[in-house]
Amino acid sequence: MESSNQTVSVTEFILLGLSAHPKLEKMFFVLILLMYLVILLGNGVLILVTVSVSHLHTPMYFFLGNLSFLDICYTTSSVPLILDSFLTPRKTIPFSACVMQMFLSFAMGATECVLLGMMAFDRYVAICNPLRYPVVMSKAAYVPMAASSWAAGSAASMVQTSLAMKLPFCGNNIINHFTCEILAILKLACADISINVISMGVTNVIFLGVPVLFIFVSYIFILTTILMIPSAEGRKKAFSTCSAHLAVVVIFYGTILFMYGKPKSKDLLGADKQDVSDKLTSLFYGVVTPMLNPIIYSLRNKDVKAAVRNLVAQKCFTQ
Questions:
Q1: Mean pLDDT by 10-residue block, N- to C-terminus, for the chain (319 residues)?
Q2: What is the pTM assigned to this prediction?
Q3: Cα dist. 176→66, 84, 107, 182, 188 in Å?
């Protein structure tokens, strides 16, 4: 009997999502759809501004444009699937589509970790070594830095996705999640996943631990330099150039730590509530964070606000 079960190949997966809470599905469909539209609009405007406004053609805004494009790609790889699951009674996804979605979401998440580190280095050079900033952060430097972020994230995702797809899946195809999240997929494998776990651990150290440590050290030097500025106005101006990035870093990594660092409930009732809580936290990480990024950068940056106003005024004037 066991051998016959092992020969069954999985051709599709079933995404549970919030199927046990149908009332929540309708409410979250409207909420997530509105958030997704805000993500597309906010990040799209930031990309348009950083590309079309000449005085924003600097390393900081180049990285910001990459971050906005990344947020659009990340949410587009998962949000349409989530919205569809809220409306469809049987929430199935083909095996190949699941693999593609898993690859894209992992690649975008890993790329953002590296990109935030690159942006921290940019702020470090701008504040701690302003005279050398044009040389250190030249176009020949910051373009390869951004490209390497995308390449590293894609390579890490390719490795993890390939390892996951080599595992046998013997009939159990129910994913207790909104999307094809790689950890949820690994739980369905009917084979030893120790290599996958070790590989994921190494990847987490490289793409989570190292960037966090790099950002932390960078901001120690940044804050030390800011506190040494004699005038209060100078300190305020210097801190304003990195406060938006710091806020994005805190939200991004804070959500990850909350998702994976909180203790698990042992009683069944508490476990069910925690299961819903974990899914909603994952939803927050996947939708709310990309929505907040352009809002934070727009509110905290006078150049961006002025560029958006000028762009809107030009469009209205030409019409």
A1: 50 77 80 93 90 87 93 92 81 87 92 94 94 93 96 95 88 81 85 89 91 94 92 86 88 75 48 62 79 81 74 65
A2: 0.86
A3: 32, 16, 21, 12, 10
